[in-house]
# Entry
Amino acid sequence: MKMNIGGTDKVVRILVGLVLLSLLFLLKGNARWFGLIGLVPLATAFTGTCPLYTLVGVDTNPKK
# Structure
C-alpha cells in the first residue's frame, strides 16, 4: 500500500493512540477496554498508511 500519512499526522496519531491506551489504566470496569481503540492510530502511524485516507483520497505525505 502507498504511504499516505505525513510527519505531523504521524505525531498526532501517536499522541492520540497513547492517550487512548492510557484509558486502560485510568478507567475502572469494562469502560477501560475502550482504550484498546488506541491501537488503531498507533498501527496506522507506524505503518504510514491509513485505509480510510485511501478510500477518501486524502494524502498528507509530502513525499511524492
Notes: The first helix runs from residue 7 to 26.
